[in-house]
Amino acid sequence: MSCLLAVDPGTHHLGLAIFSGRELLLAYLERGRPTLLDMPITQIVIEIPQIYTRTHSKADPKDLIRVAYAAGRATVLAPHAEVRLVHPRAWKGSTKKHITEGRVLAELTPEELARIMMPPRSLANNVFDSVAIGLRTVGRLGHTTPTMERAPL
């Protein structure tokens, strides 16, 4: 069995979703230092920050540095896995958070929904996004697999 780890990094935490084949095994919010996973993770897909022009961005540009740092920290979870990077536009386009959440909820089975360890509502979007990234990667959400790039060594 080989597993996929999908990661949505935030400024202070990571949304993580683990898939075996096309099935969601676990999704949760990692706070603090991530620790090695005792699972056969062979691939990690990490959302990396996208730089937008000032007129199109709502976020503080300095937060991109923190998010990029969190994305890098995610690689310690499975140090021997192949790492792929995906930009937000590649996997969700300009879809609003509540629409992404609805699509995730509609796609998951009751068994998979029970495997989501839901954080407080204010942090739930990171978990939903990690699940959505994983669903897109395994071909269960959207019509195509998102364009990804290999992480530099």
Task: Please describe the structure with a list of short key phrases separated by commas or semicolons.
153 residues, alpha/beta, six-stranded mixed β-sheet, 5 helices, 6 strands, globular
Describe the protein's topology.
Layout: E1 3-9, E2 13-20, E3 23-31, E4 41-47, H1 61-73, E5 82-86, H2 88-92, H3 97-107, H4 110-113, H5 124-137, E6 149-150
Parallel strand pairs: 1-4, 4-5
Antiparallel strand pairs: 1-2, 2-3, 5-6
Helix pairs in contact: 3-5
Textual characterization of the structure:
The chain has 153 residues and is an alpha/beta fold. 31% of the residues lie in helices and 25% in strands. It contains five helices and six strands; from the N terminus they run ββββαβααααβ. It has helices at 61-73, 88-92, 97-107, 110-113, 124-137; strands spanning 3-9, 13-20, 23-31, 41-47, 82-86, 149-150. The protein has a six-stranded mixed sheet with strand order 3-2-1-4-5-6. The protein is globular and about 40 Å long. The two termini are 25 Å apart. 33% of the residues are buried. The mean pLDDT is 84.
